């Protein structure tokens, strides 16, 4: 490795990386003298380049050609980036406005990758968070048609930020005023109760929130017993709506709505999947002429990236994987810059960009880190 006093050679390596990223042409000593203020002669730079090549940090692709960085050279270059400049004020404002217009988790994910692909001119990828527990953040019940209302649009907003709209047919007619009251009551039940399995929606729909005449149901033939402690939202709602003053019609409507909400929350559990944008940037780079097809196929199947993300535990705000470091042959000519983000009730997931090893690493790292931070903050709201 480098002697720490060899600052000039590090400057030469930085210049080679920057020049090659910009031009995609091997870099010679004459070009470095003309384009960069290194303060030394071309002969001295040639000696430095020879030392860098001996270290395996650059290589000569053709006889009489200049030099290009190796994966090892890119890695050393990235490791020497001791400070990532923040985004400009206009860039930060653009990110804020981009997220503020999002509606629901799916929209946030789509907006994130489009934004990141635009900022970096790379292929942007985002891993959906895997929610360990989905709770109800807000519920709106909107009656469809004139009163008495029997058809209701339930707007279910989960703690993950996911928004679902479900049409529910009620067994009994009701009013909008009663629906508003019912919404607040059900919202409290689902927002504060967990099932034994750890997710509030892990119960079997259809068990009922209204009392049913069974062997366990108290009647005038059996002594009165204390009600059992509720074990899930459906049971807690049953306790609430079994008040003798509550109309049977209200209890039955609560049961049907509770089942619909629970099913919606259960279906909203995020699966392991990735959203991508800017795939055309891989072709535009010109670095994958022979490997573009298998690379695109691997990315579209998502298996390779999901496996890679599952193995990543970044100690730093930004992680960079270069070439063969990924351990996947199909990614041997790529670099992946990623960061993790989190949201309440979910494991940390990843967002990043994938492109050629000839990448603008400082710019990509800056954009990925900033977007991950904004995304985390937005999803925690």
UniProtKB/TrEMBL annotation:
<feature type="region of interest" description="Disordered">
    <location>
        <begin position="192"/>
        <end position="246"/>
    </location>
</feature>
<dbReference type="InterPro" id="IPR002571">
    <property type="entry name" value="HrcA"/>
</dbReference>
<dbReference type="InterPro" id="IPR021153">
    <property type="entry name" value="HrcA_C"/>
</dbReference>
<feature type="domain" description="Heat-inducible transcription repressor HrcA C-terminal">
    <location>
        <begin position="106"/>
        <end position="191"/>
    </location>
</feature>
<comment type="function">
    <text>Negative regulator of class I heat shock genes (grpE-dnaK-dnaJ and groELS operons). Prevents heat-shock induction of these operons.</text>
</comment>
<dbReference type="GO" id="GO:0003677">
    <property type="term" value="F:DNA binding"/>
</dbReference>
<dbReference type="GO" id="GO:0003700">
    <property type="term" value="F:DNA-binding transcription factor activity"/>
</dbReference>
<feature type="domain" description="Heat-inducible transcription repressor HrcA C-terminal">
    <location>
        <begin position="254"/>
        <end position="364"/>
    </location>
</feature>
<feature type="domain" description="HTH deoR-type">
    <location>
        <begin position="19"/>
        <end position="65"/>
    </location>
</feature>
<feature type="compositionally biased region" description="Polar residues">
    <location>
        <begin position="231"/>
        <end position="241"/>
    </location>
</feature>
<keyword id="KW-0804">Transcription</keyword>
<keyword id="KW-0678">Repressor</keyword>
<dbReference type="InterPro" id="IPR036388">
    <property type="entry name" value="WH-like_DNA-bd_sf"/>
</dbReference>
<dbReference type="InterPro" id="IPR036390">
    <property type="entry name" value="WH_DNA-bd_sf"/>
</dbReference>
<dbReference type="Pfam" id="PF01628">
    <property type="entry name" value="HrcA"/>
</dbReference>
<dbReference type="InterPro" id="IPR029016">
    <property type="entry name" value="GAF-like_dom_sf"/>
</dbReference>
<dbReference type="Pfam" id="PF08220">
    <property type="entry name" value="HTH_DeoR"/>
</dbReference>
<protein>
    <recommendedName>
        <fullName>Heat-inducible transcription repressor HrcA</fullName>
    </recommendedName>
</protein>
<dbReference type="GO" id="GO:0045892">
    <property type="term" value="P:negative regulation of DNA-templated transcription"/>
</dbReference>
<dbReference type="InterPro" id="IPR001034">
    <property type="entry name" value="DeoR_HTH"/>
</dbReference>
<feature type="compositionally biased region" description="Polar residues">
    <location>
        <begin position="192"/>
        <end position="204"/>
    </location>
</feature>
<keyword id="KW-0805">Transcription regulation</keyword>
<keyword id="KW-0346">Stress response</keyword>
<comment type="similarity">
    <text>Belongs to the HrcA family.</text>
</comment>
